[in-house]
């Protein structure tokens, strides 16, 4: 399941779900015409409100979207186009979606006023599932710093949610929430990590003209997977911090993978503009 943005009318029949969909980044707040179907899964928010999520699937290149029905969402802001308080698709992997749902108007300022949900929908007859993650101890993560990783197979619904919080220079804190084999949320753990061998200072030094002079600013997260559950936190200007978040033999470690310098034509933008103007990383 891939994420994207755009408009597209979806169909709501589980038998018709394509094997791959392009998913809009923002969920649609369900209207009066909302009808549950086989892709609908239910749960409750941390404020004890009922919530349901339905996949409105469409065949690519049309976009699919999630329809979110929760009585508290309209109360947060009656403007359905306000993305600051809209349900947001944070990350996807396999048939899993990590969804952030605001539960307070202050969510536009701090994501700690949001709930995180894991939505799983199957292309076969098994029912869709929606689980709310435990609160990460009042901590709100930037949407660009958190990812979901599928850890199971056809008989195992386990997953992990990982977030990397910057502390100072090469020091970070990894927050990890691993589910049980049946896909029910576990508890959050945290590990303070230090980049073992910083390499980007040699390969991709910060120019004197840079407006920001920090070691790493995460632009996006990529899930590489594998037996150890490798996740990469990407700074598109400088490099990728790789971490095997599922390594049960050794404690997680951060490895630095520098990126090449921008082309000559993009050099004036280096560290002075949004890197998305001239580069990106996609894992297929």
Automatic annotation (TrEMBL):
Domain (DUF1618) spans 233-283
Instruction: Name any one Pfam family assigned in the record.
Output: DUF1618
Give the transmembrane ranges. none
Q: Which domain of life does this protein belong to?
A: Eukaryota
Official protein name in the record: DUF1618 domain-containing protein
The organism of origin for this protein:
Oryza nivara (Indian wild rice)
């Amino acid at each position: 399941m891939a994420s994207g943005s755009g408009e597209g009318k979806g169909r709501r029949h589980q038998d018709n779900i394509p094997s791959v969909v392009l998913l809009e980044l923002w969920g649609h707040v369900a209207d009066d015409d909302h009808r549950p179907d086989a892709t609908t899964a239910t749960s409750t928010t941390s404020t004890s409100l009922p919530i349901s999520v339905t996949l409105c699937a469409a065949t690519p290149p049309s976009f699919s979207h999630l329809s979110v029905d929760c009585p508290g969402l309209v109360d947060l802001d009656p403007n359905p186009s306000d993305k600051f308080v809209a349900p947001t698709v944070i990350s996807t992997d396999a048939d899993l979606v990590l969804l952030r749902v605001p539960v307070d108007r202050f969510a536009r300022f701090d994501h700690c006023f949001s709930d995180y949900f894991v939505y799983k929908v199957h292309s076969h007859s098994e029912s869709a599932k929606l689980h709310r993650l435990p609160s990460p101890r009042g901590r709100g993560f930037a949407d660009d710093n958190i990812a979901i990783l599928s850890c199971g197979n056809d008989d195992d619904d386990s997953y992990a949610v990982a977030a990397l919080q910057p502390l100072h220079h090469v020091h970070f804190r990894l927050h990890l929430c691993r589910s049980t084999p049946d896909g029910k949320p576990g508890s959050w753990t945290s590990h303070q990590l230090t980049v073992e061998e910083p390499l980007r200072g040699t390969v991709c030094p910060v120019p004197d003209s840079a407006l920001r002079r920090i070691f790493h600013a995460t632009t996006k997260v990529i899930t590489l997977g594998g037996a150890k559950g490798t996740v990469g936190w990407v700074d598109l200007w400088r490099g990728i911090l790789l971490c095997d978040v599922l390594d049960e033999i050794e404690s997680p470690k951060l490895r630095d993978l520098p990126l090449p310098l921008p082309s000559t034509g993009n050099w004036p933008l280096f560290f002075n503009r949004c890197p998305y103007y001239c580069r990106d990383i996609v894992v297929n």
